[in-house]
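1st attempt posting a full record on here, be nice pls
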Amino acid sequence: MCRSIVYRQKYAAGVSIFLLNNKSRVRAREEFRSNAKVILAHGYEKYRDRPFYVPTPLGERLMIPPQYVDELRSAWIDDVDFLGTFKEMFEGKYTTFGDRSQLHPTITRGPLTQNIGKLLPGMFEEIEECYQIKFPKGDCWQVVDAGELFLGMIARITSRMFAGKDLSHHETWVATSIAFAIDGFVSAQTLKRYPSLLKPVVAIFLSSLRRIKQHHRTAQQAICPIIETRKADGAHKSVDAVQWMMDEAKEGESDSKFIANIVLKLSFASIHTSSGVLLNILYNLCYRAEYIEPLRTEARKVLDEEGQWNRNALEKLVKLDSFMIESQRFSPLLLSE
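the predicted structure (as tokens):
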């Protein structure tokens, strides 16, 4: 018999909740959407080297002083349950966010990272196709929704990594991989407004949760045929995340629907964060336009040396790497408006 585990937020003893201007916790959660930077700055000024909670739309989040980061990073799962926190934050009981399976962490840390060089040609091909299809043509100025543009591009690139062209060119899947995270965020933020006793009732009426169920069906319709075809042709091994999941799956994890659902959850972890980082880099590059030409010069030099974009070429883009790091330092996603 399977038991449903309900993850409720637990607060550390003796740690204060910071409420700017003594607002109620409900109002403070909403204010975080538009005033996060100011709230965090005031909280840091008040508590300095002590941890404190900040109300956000996804519950109270614990702010940890830098001196504890290494200890937190190496802590045992029995002491620091990241997944339990993730499921609580995103109301995983209803949104399906969070999974105890170690299949996708194993793949991400292992073969996906180790074989990134083999994946790059396909990723660059997707970038080139997106540029030809989605980027505006002509010499005249045009209004472009860069956020939407990057979302679609990153969704295709990650899908290519997950299961090759069959998935990256599956338009319904690409749309679902983008919408899944949005519907999950909306559902979680809505459910956070209600006490635990009422959440099951509220969940019945949320259209975003009904769409999440459809997203899982779409993922299975797109990915299960790919898996079944590969199982039938056992001699050929593809170089992508789905193939590595098939190879590494333990008992209960080899079902094609299970893998399809895992891929959908991987898309949540990769698409919106990557596109958000890329968008902030673009904004910072526009703001500091004096760096455009040095970065172009570096890219041209590296491409001349390597002849193509590959792992060695990317590792030589030192200035670009530095700019990206500084962009993320000055414009972390949590504080992006």
